[in-house]
## 1
Amino acid sequence: MAVALGIDLGTTNSVAAIATPTGVEFILGPRGERVHPSTVAFPASGGVVVGADARRYRLTEPHHVIHSAKRFIGQNIRAPLVQLAMTGVRYKVVEGPNQQPIVVVRDRRMTMPEISSHVLLHLKRCAERQLGTQVKDAVITVPANFTDGQRQATKEAGRLAGLDVMRLINEPTAAALAYGFGQDHQKVIAVFDFGGGTFDVSILRLNGEIFEVLASDGDFFLGGDDLDRSLAEVLAAECNRVLGLDPRPHPALMMKLMMGAEAIKCHLSENDAAEGEIDGLDLPSGGTGKLPFEVTRRQFEDLIGGYVARTIDVTKQAIRAAGFDIRNVADVLCVGGSTRIPLVRTRLAELFGKEVNTKVNPDEVVAQGAAIQAGSLSGGLSSGTGMGARDAVATAGHSSLAHGNVQLPVGQVTRPVLLDVNPATLAIQTAGGFTERLLDKNAPIPIERTRVFTTARDNQTRVEIDCCRGENRRYTENEPLGTLQLENLPAKARGELKIEVSFRVDADGILHVKASDQVTGAAQEAHLQVLGAPSAEEP
Amino acid sequence: MSVRSDVLLWAQRIVAKKDAAPHVLLEIKADCGVDDAQAAFHKLARMAHPDLHRSSLEAAELELVTTAYSRITAAYQEFRSQRMQTMRMQPIHDTGRLPTINQEAGRAVPEAQPPTPSASGAAGAMNSKALIYYRKAELCLRRGDLRGAVLQLKMAIAGDPASTFLRTALTEVMAEVGKTP
């Protein structure tokens, strides 16, 4: 029985773990760390450096350090959000085939899945070293609001890293699984996932081994990075006042301030004020400078209040979509580093009328859930499968199992059933520029729905089926996914030709569109290539 | 093993009944409530969710079970959304045990205005989704990044298309972009 890895592939950090019948064991990096930065560096000395070591190159070779690849992966480069993300990074991103973003570093062109595959490969190697066995199967988590293209690209990254991606699961669902596995809960919970780059909220009903997502919502471009940036702007103004130097045109200085802002943010989660100085600022005039700062928690909360209010609004939307009274939510799970901020917890407690659950580790719970699902899918968690993951670990003579790892309910063999949802309404364009919805947001997956359409003109021998994602009635107001074509149709009067369009979203949340003409029965089929997703062409 | 053949027989039955009404596929009565539908759906999920049969079925058999299960979820979704629509129109004095959509007048959901970061009239001129992008646009402007500001403002307008405040702001910034080479 192979070992199956659960991977939380984050915007800033990644965590991997495996589940065995005795517990969840985390995969450690070269220095024994559980959290692996999702950073890939291509230093001048050659080679590829991943993880904590890669972060060291951020100041010396910022153009060759790829971070936050998750903000680009599987996205259409022409989307405004991607254009925005490009203004926030120091490495070069250009348009590749199928409108996918391509990284150019040291004259090499690499797709985003290639970048992410380096992170996955690093985790795979750490796991193999730690467990003393080959690792092939994996479950990777993605934000609940990830699109089809982003999911396809994440799977592609896994494939490039030599992993068989058994399943992609949504991060909030993974957290709920880690929370409820083997507990036989009967209740409704909310999972509030506020990470480094994305924000998600899911409302779930736990019914024994069933984890049913009732509604999920989120904001793909809202995370701890935004909070750091708003604080860094204040530090920049302070720098201008104290040192008489505007750091904004100097990327290295701004990077230093961002790192300072991040540290101050973390300090303010525990303390009412942060006071100190950021030193080692390389001044353009030569020499180094120091920037003293004094920030109170109150000032920081004023800065980030708007962002936090947005997360609360999205949470309300999700509860409304779940069709639930907010008082029925029995527990509120906080996931992601940004939920350590006291203001976030206070606002959540106000909204739900109860204290949030602080028992879970916000950085590790998603990887734990992924590991449990990986174990369940590969059979490593159930009893009576013979050589289980535990044996593989035991053969390696590994003894760190007991230390700080999470205990699972022993003897638990019921496999969990995850009932996740479709993150966005999927529709096609009809005559007059309107849309016809095929699959609703928050519909359970895997799901398949077929609708029959007809032609709008006489003797129409060719149809184009434009697929989009979004709630708007007008096609142009939604995000285009791509176009399917059916050609050489029999010439008929309008309305006589019947075209069957089927939308299927699989358990990974990936869309498959199929169209066939029913009259000829020749079942001419076309499949959709989602814009921004990996394509067969070379970058 | 019988579990395996039970699932396959069920899947064949479901796939054969392609155009059947949702309650027929879920094997419940047409006038059931959402709770009953959910119970039926959970029961089917426990038996037929494709994840549970990954290792025990052949590829073609798994495909059949997946197709059948995917149609069950579609049926459940349709049944549920029909019921939800009915529920929205229920009179207020109906205090049935079903969860209803519009009970939010209760004390637990304070409909307070989102607190805004700084003193500015901008907050009232747009919704909270637009506001975060507007704030990001302000940050861009402060560091002289006009192009970034334009993108952020466009995102803000996508969040709140009705806001005239945002459209005016975008026009102003676009004019600035025109001036700089």
## 2
Amino acid sequence: MANLSQAINVSAPVKKLKSKNSFGYVIGRVLLYLLLIFAAFICLFPFYWMISTSLMTLGETINKKFIPEIPQWVNYADAWKQAKFGKYFMNSVLITLGTLAGLLFTSILAGYAFGRIDFKGKNLVFALFLATMMIPESVTIIPNLLMIRGNILPLPGGSWLNTYWALTVPFMANAFSIFLLKQFFSQVPKELWDAARIDGCDHMRFLIQVVLPISKAPIMTILLFGFTGAWNAFTWPLLVTTKDVWRPLMVGLWGFVNEAGPETHLLMAGAVITLLPILVIYFLTQKQFTQGIATTGLKG
Amino acid sequence: MTEEIVEVMVNPEKKKGSLKALYLKEQLTGYLFVLPAFIIVFVFGLFPIGYSVYMSLFNWQVTKGKFVGADNYLKIFGDWRSLILLVVGIGLVIFGFWVWRNAFKNQKHGAIISKIVSLVIILVGLIFFSTSWRLMSEGGTLIKAGWLAREGAGPIIAKGNKDFLNSLMVTLYYALGTVPAEIIIGMVIAYILYQGIKGKEIFRMIFFLPYVTPAVTTAVVFQIIFSNRPTSIANTVVGLLGMDPLRWRFEPKPVTTLLGMNLTGFWSGPSLALVTIILFGIWTYIGYNTVIFLAGLGNVPKEVYEAAEMDGATRGDMFRHITVPMLSPVTFYLTLVAFIGTFKAFNHIYVMRTPSAQDSVITTSLMIWDRFYKANQYSIATSQAIVLFLVILGLTFAQNKLMGERVFYG
């Protein structure tokens, strides 16, 4: 036995050294990097093209230049004005913030209850929640539109068409976020709860003072997914907004596609504008988000 | 609550009542915590399913009309006889698979015979299926559909909604075109990144970018990259390969026809316009799969690889015999999510579709949207949506059965 472990200890590093210096190993590494760079190029090219076109003159877009000679920053101002992005941008920001606030509130409470409280019918309710992940929007969208119009139930204020509520309330809870938080919350050691209970803590205080401070990663993860979901929403806003009052940026961009026509440089400037907030949020939450995926049940 | 506990400790005879109060309080807290989420999920996620079924039983165009029973569903399938044929066909295929499975289990006793039997059953099922499909999309008699040999016999069967059936086929093309590619490429990239690559975080960040950015925005960019102008980026690349410019998003012809093959029906494959949309789909989702696979790879114990390396396994061997089976739960989950996702896909198809690509890019979710948004035929749209939902349920179930058994849980 001792001999065996000695043999392993000795042979392993030798083998590694040999393989790391060999010609084949180096070639393999180079190939791997080339492959990755190629894949990264494919991923980034549309973004590069979008940005470079957004800085061109109309003539340059027609002649299919790859790089603008002098960056035309004025395109952004033109697109902003021409597409009424000022209004739409503000709308999108408010809609996203409202949705996120509601989403965090409902999913933290529900995630905690599913993860840490035993109540009757818990598994059934949770299964119902999960089932909604399989339902295509095509099934729910028509009744939801009738609901928002006030055709099914009387709503406060009659119809919710063109209101802030129509754009936020339906997205203030989703099964995915609850599932993610439930997975994380149920891993919090039971001893912590026992200790807190002896100190006179109830569930609400335990959640706020103990659980939430250690749940930064999963909360950032649902924030990122919630943000992209709300910011990128397209079909539902298209349905429930008929006027500019609450029309969000994506619907505005879609209108601009038909309006800008051949003025590709302006269209691309508009496209970059819709992208910027997402990029900021993405780079800010990047680290916690990766951690969030690794520590929750998201990976199956 | 502290007082209650203290009291229980001090006065044991009061224990029963207090414990019950504690229990009730716990129950109540649970319900209260779940309530806000439940209201929203119920009103906007669960209730609409029932209401859709209800709507589909009426002649409903913007406002409720006459009760029509199952008529809207019959309009999809044409005739109950073709529907029976379809159901029997699917049933036979499933039964055939079941027989095949059991043949594997008792290999000693006539394994070959039961395999042959199962193949025959599956074949018959497929014939039933394709016959009913043709009947539903074209109508006519059984003979016209290539069923039975004698002429002039058999009742005339009304055709169903050809456009809807076509949209299901387009959706299937889209699913088969995107899901395997994005899963395999995602897994390979994750495995490469896992080999101690420098700048792994940066690569991962780049690959995930298409997933977080708005589909409407990126689809608008793809729209221009894949335009039919001879100077578009896609045509420039094609030109470098020495080919003539293509019409991309505007091309309703199947790719096989463009390649000079002469196939018809299902086997002619997706149109070039749909392939363009498939490319977009793959581009968007590879990064997501890579990130999840990477998280899964982190869970594979390092010792397994070290042991294999000691036994002289190459990197390829290790990928095939360790990584792939160890990742199977992740693969299963991702495939399921991706498959359901393709049936829900909407935004980028909506943005990238062109009138000249005709119905070759109209997936079922777009079809339903057009019925409802453009034509205001609410009940037709809801009945189609319910059928789509049943198809998703069926496919998910089948995938669970087929793939679920091969999943290896550590």
